[in-house]
Specification:
- The chain is about 80% helix and about 0% strand.
- By secondary structure, it is an all-alpha fold.
- The chain has helices spanning about 10-25, 30-65, 75-95.
- α1 packs antiparallel against α2.
- The protein has three helices and no strands.
């Protein structure tokens, strides 16, 4: 199962922008100071979100390949079971 991480950078960036707006209201920042700070915060947190998205995607790809063994089955039986399940899911997705 694939995690939906496409919107993660945008969500992180918008949350950081919202926090910046709230702080600027309470601190009574001037318009130029607020705009410059907001721009920097949005760029930095978009990059942080993009890196986090890449890390999560790679981690999920790794965990998709992990084979879980039952108590009394060996590795090859578990691998066959996982491949059969994956083929079944893919064939259902095509319908």
């Amino acid at each position: 199962m694939q995690m939906k991480t496409k919107a993660l950078p945008a969500v992180i960036m918008l949350c950081a922008g919202f926090v910046t707006c709230i702080i600027s209201l309470f601190q009574h920042w001037e318009l130029f100071h607020f705009t410059l700070t907001l721009l920097i915060v949005l760029i930095v947190f978009y990059l942080v979100g993009a890196v986090l998205r890449i890390v999560l995607d790679k981690a999920m790809d790794y965990f998709d390949e992990v084979v879980v063994l039952d108590d009394d089955e060996d590795y090859f039986e578990a691998l066959e079971r996982e491949q059969a399940m994956k083929a079944l899911l893919e064939s259902e997705g095509e319908d």
